[in-house]
Task: structure prediction
Amino acid sequence: MKFVTVFLVMSLVVLMAEPGECFFKSLWKGAKAVFHVIRKGFKGYKDQRAQDKLGGNQQDMQNQQTQDAPPQAYQR
Result:
């Protein structure tokens, strides 16, 4: 299935190329763009996981502090 997808995409690139443009130059630019998007997305994913983990740790610390606190006296 992946081979079919790659074949169709590559055939579209070849068919849509304008005369006078180098096919490999166009292909290289497209590959670089895809690589940068994937890299940026992965960095964002790692940053989001780090923020989620940090937020979870802060929530755990707050819960631990409230559990460790001595009980307050009842007020009337």
About this structure: Helices lie at 2-16, 23-68. The two ends are 72 Å apart (CA to CA).
